[in-house]
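Lab meeting, item 3. Inverse folding demo.
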């Protein structure tokens, strides 16, 4: 799919991590454009609703890298996990705010599904970083969306 090509859709919407669509929204100011994601959206005739929970929460791009110090997104939502920036700042409140704003966008746009970036402290679907280690877990936004009965997949589920 060419960058300039628009989506021919059926009107069905899906939240998509903006970085996977090629927008430079990641913590390092880069994108993670995924041709697999673009092909999937086109094939399924889905209208992507780009989201970056961290930007929605008011964080800048670029921004400090964040990882879990304990638990994962479910634990953060339950009040017993901790997401911290590389400088040691607690990020729980910010990540929860971004997750809530993403859920509101899902509701406003009629999305019942989300396709999010694996490994992210916000968007991870199957794994996140606990310190420097990749571990099984979900990001804060993914956890909130799942708790709200949205179907959540990652770009790695498309392979």
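The presenter then showed the designed sequence:
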């Amino acid at each position: 799919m060419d960058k300039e090509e628009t989506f021919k859709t059926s009107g069905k919407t899906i939240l998509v991590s903006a970085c996977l669509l090629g927008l430079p929204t990641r913590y390092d100011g880069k994108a993670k454009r995924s041709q697999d994601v673009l092909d999937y959206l086109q094939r399924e005739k889905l209208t992507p609703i780009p989201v970056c929970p961290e930007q929605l929460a008011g964080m800048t791009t670029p921004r400090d890298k964040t990882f879990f110090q304990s638990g994962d997104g479910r634990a953060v939502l339950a009040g017993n996990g901790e997401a911290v920036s590389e400088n040691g700042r607690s990020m729980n409140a910010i990540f929860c705010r971004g997750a809530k704003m993403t859920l509101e966008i899902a509701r406003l746009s009629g999305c019942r599904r989300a396709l999010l970036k694996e490994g992210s402290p916000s968007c991870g679907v199957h794994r996140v970083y606990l310190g420097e280690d990749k571990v099984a877990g979900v990001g804060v936004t993914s956890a909130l969306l799942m708790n709200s009965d949205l179907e959540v997949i990652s770009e790695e589920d498309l392979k």
